[in-house]
Every structure is written in structure tokens, then in C-alpha cells.
Amino acid sequence: MDKWEYKIIEPNVKGWLNKKIDSGAEQSLNEMGNQGWELVAITPLAGISASSWGSSTTSFVLIFKRKKI
């Protein structure tokens, strides 16, 4: 049976209205791919906004996996 290890990363998102990903994100993702990591999910994180009636997405986490050797 295969065994997996997981890594969770919260990317650096800048700005309030016009969120932008860190310019080095593509290079970081390519490095992780070269190390055997596969992106399997992107999950929004909810936060409380004082100006709304509920929660809003404040950032995201990226979930990676790779096979244990």
C-alpha cells in the first residue's frame, strides 16, 4: 500500500481589494514539483469581516502530497 506525506502552504497574498500572489510563486511551485510534491487542493480560509453579515475569504491554503519513499 502506498504511503503519502502532506504539506500545507499559505501563499503570500497582498492587497485588500485587488489581491495579488507573490511574484516568486511560480518558481516556488516548480521547485516543489521537482521535489515530487503534487498540488491536490486549494482551500479558502474564511475570516470575519466587520462590514458584512458573515464571513469572507481572507486567504487560501495550498495542499500538496508526495509518495513516501
How would you sum up this structure, described in words?
The chain is mainly β. The chain has one domain. Helices cover 14% and strands 49% of the residues. It is built from one helix and five strands, in the order E-E-E-H-E-E. It has one helix at 25-34, and strands spanning 4-9, 13-14, 20-21, 38-48, 55-67. It has a three-stranded antiparallel sheet with strand order 1-5-4, with no helix packed on it. Strand 4 and strand 5 (55-67) form a beta hairpin. It starts with a strand and ends with a strand. The model has no long low-confidence stretch (mean pLDDT 81). Pfam families: DUF4177 (PF13783).
Query: What is the residue-averaged pLDDT?
Result: 81
What is the H/E string?
EEEHEE
Percentage of residues in DSSP E strands: over 45%
Rounded to an integer in angstroms, the radius of gyration calculated over CA atoms is 15 Å
Main sheet, how many strands, which sense, barrel? 3 strands, antiparallel
Features:
69 residues; mainly beta; three-stranded antiparallel beta sheet; 14% helix; YjzH-like; transmembrane helix
Give the SSE map.
Blueprint: E1 4-9, E2 13-14, E3 20-21, H1 25-34, E4 38-48, E5 55-67
Antiparallel strand pairs: 1-5, 2-3, 4-5
Protein name: DUF4177 domain-containing protein
Keywords: Membrane, Transmembrane, Transmembrane helix
Organism: Candidatus Nomurabacteria bacterium GW2011_GWD2_39_12
